[in-house]
Design brief:
Blueprint (H helix, E strand, L loop, with lengths): L44 E5 L1 H4 L9 H9 L7 E3 L5 H15 L4 E6 L5 E4 L5 E4 L4 H8 L5 H17 L2 H21 L3 E6 L3 H9 L9 H6 L17 H12 L6 H19 L9
Parallel strand pairs: 1-2, 1-3, 3-6
Antiparallel strand pairs: 4-5
């Protein structure tokens, strides 16, 4: 496998186990490549995300990707390159790989997850995301998706990542990844629209690192559609139907870049999360 030319999802496939209760209802809707979309093929439109794209809501046609595709791009194949527990590095790599295999789309809609993580490939050849949440590692061990040695390494990396990260490092990570996205979009004349996935960890990491976004490039500012309001959540902390609609509204709206308004909405979302969950702002973090 070459990770920069992949077709099949190379991440640890949480939905591939019957033990993952949040996703048992959608398991049969995931294609052979690991995505909840059409089998990959040329399309003018690509959706990039993570758990919001996979979306454990029962009404799959109410996900933001489905609503947007139905209302704006119904004549194109539905290509949604998102899997649970993946991050911004995976989204960049998947977009590039899609272009290499199927040509460039005209439009990319992207929801950015937490920005403080990176990827690692274990000895079994599967990627996983490294941030601070241990729940994914513990589930993968119980479900037999990783062995004891791979689990121990994963948890050690999570602990190290929490200790190593600081605001300046997170700013560096963000600039590097946004530069990749911008370069790809400019090289292939792609119209980018992006916002944030307002799930628990994304809300927290954004609020605590708002200054990292103050001086992003003009291209990324012009491509930003505004920060959606977090309105509801499911048992696994993925976003609910009302929040999916908020994301859809941002993509079809006409909001412009406004750092102060971004900061205000980020604080509103953070306080909403605190009111919902108290001290456990990020589910299964320790």
């Amino acid at each position: 496998m070459t990770y920069w030319n992949e077709i099949n999802d190379s991440h640890i496939k949480f939905w591939n186990s019957d033990k993952y209760p949040s996703y048992y209802k959608i398991k049969n809707s995931i294609n052979k490549q690991g995505y909840r979309s059409d089998v990959l093929k040329p399309s003018e439109v690509v959706y990039l995300g993570t758990c919001d794209v996979m979306a454990s809501i029962d009404q799959g046609d109410l996900r933001w990707t489905s609503v947007l595709h139905r209302n704006r791009h119904f004549d194109q194949p539905y290509i949604a390159l998102g899997t649970v527990a993946s991050g911004l590095p995976a989204m960049i790599r998947r977009l590039y790989s899609y272009i290499q295999n199927f040509g460039s789309p005209k439009y990319v809609y992207m929801t950015v997850p937490r920005i403080d993580s990176y990827e690692f490939v274990n000895k079994s050849g599967n990627c996983y995301n490294l941030s601070s949440r241990t729940g994914s590692a513990r589930f993968a061990l119980k479900a037999g998706l990783v062995d004891e040695q791979e689990f121990d390494i994963w948890v050690a990396q999570l602990e190290a990542n929490k200790r190593l990260n600081n605001p300046e490092n997170i700013k560096y990570i963000l600039e590097e990844r946004f530069a990749f996205i911008e370069t790809i979009c400019k090289a292939y004349d792609i119209k980018l629209k992006w916002t944030f996935n307002p799930s628990d960890a994304s809300i927290v990491v954004l609020y605590r690192n708002l200054s990292a976004f103050k001086d992003i490039s003009d291209f990324m500012k012009e491509s930003f559609v505004g920060l959606p309001e977090a309105k509801d959540t499911l048992g696994d902390r993925t976003i609910g139907i009302e929040t999916h609609f908020e994301i859809y509204e941002k993509f079809v709206g006409d909001d412009k870049w406004d750092y102060d308004r971004l900061s205000q909405q980020a604080e509103i979302n953070y306080n909403w999360l605190k009111n919902q969950f108290g001290d456990e702002l990020i589910r299964i973090e320790v």
